[in-house]
Structure formats: C-alpha cells, structure tokens
Amino acid sequence: MDIFKGVKATFTSINYLIQNLTMERFIITILCFIALTACSNTDNESKEDILSGVWNVQNISGGFVGMDQDFEEETITWTFNADNSTLTVVNNNVLVDVIYDGLDTGSYPYTIIEVDNERFLEIDGQEFGGILFTNGQLLLDQNKISTGSGADGFILLFKLEID
To answer: What distance in Å separates the CA atoms of residue 27 and residue 32, rounded to the nearest whole number?
Structure first.
C-alpha cells in the first residue's frame, strides 16, 4: 500500500504541474495579445516637424570671406511642408554683390536627421547643416554637420512668418 501512496503523490504532482503550465501558457498568450494590439500605426497621421511654416532669411554670415549680409523680409523665403517633406524656396534677391544667398527659387525634398540628440537638415539628398533655435529664430549652421564640424560654411538666420 505504501508503494501506491508514492505513485499517487507522483500523479498528483504531475497533474499540478500540467495545470500550472497551462495557466502560465494562458497568461503568456494573453500578455502577447495585449502587447501586439497595443501598438499603434502612425503612418496615417499627418507629419509635423520643427521646421513647418514660412521662414524669412534675415541674415547670412560666414564663409571663407567672412560674409555678413542682412536681407529685408520676404526677399528670401523658405517654406517647409512636413506633409510632403518639401521645401519651397522663393529667392527674390537682386543684390549683385552678395556672395551667397542660399538656394535658388524652386522646390526641394528635405529630411531632418537626428544624430546624438542633435538635428541636421538634408536638402535634395545633401546635408545642409545643423538646426538650432535661438530667441525664436531658426539658425542653419553649415559648419555643424552630422559627422562632426566643418569650416568656412555659411550660417543662415531665419525668422518665422506669423500670419
């Protein structure tokens, strides 16, 4: 009779393990289901980025010759559209003695790159410079690039156009 007592205890232990394993599998299945259905798809949401809007070039400085040129409002505007990642430039500069006035009038695809918590602007597949905000103004610094620092680049200062 003692032999059967040991066998009965073994079957009871196995039955206990099967019930607990089934409960563990059930809990794991429920947790996986919750984790998978809790994810959201943000592809359909409209894009919004830090550059969206119409920006007026106020000043361009730097370069090899040390340029420092102010521009009147609406002389050069850059309009960033985050929905289609397009930059539209309107360059009405007629000053002939200006060494550099940014991009020519036209539309360009753009991307914002983030490296080590710093943002950089890429225009038409080429890195343009670092993105900085200071005193409510946008600063695009061509001396600041994602792979380190450059030299003799230009610094473009913009002011956001308020409707």
So the answer is: 9
> What stretch of H or E contains 127?
strand 126-134
Size of the chain, expressed as the number of residues it contains: 163
**CB distance 92 to 76 below 8 Å:** yes
The answer to whether residues 161 and 54 touch, using CB atoms and an 8 Å cutoff, is yes
The CA distance from 87 to 79, in Å, is 6
Structure tokens at 159: 């002011």
Q: Token match 């090899």: residue?
A: 64
Phi, then psi, of 142 in degrees rounded to 5 = -75, -10
| Whole-prediction pTM | 0.70
How far lies 78's CA from each of 116, 122, 142, 155, in Å? 26, 14, 16, 15
Contacts of 50 (CB under 8 A, 6+ apart): 112, 119, 131, 133
Does residue 37 or residue 62 have the better pLDDT?
Answer: 62
For the cut 90, the answer to whether the pLDDT of residue 49 exceeds it is no
Contacts of 58 (CB under 8 A, 6+ apart): 70, 71, 73, 137, 157, 158, 159
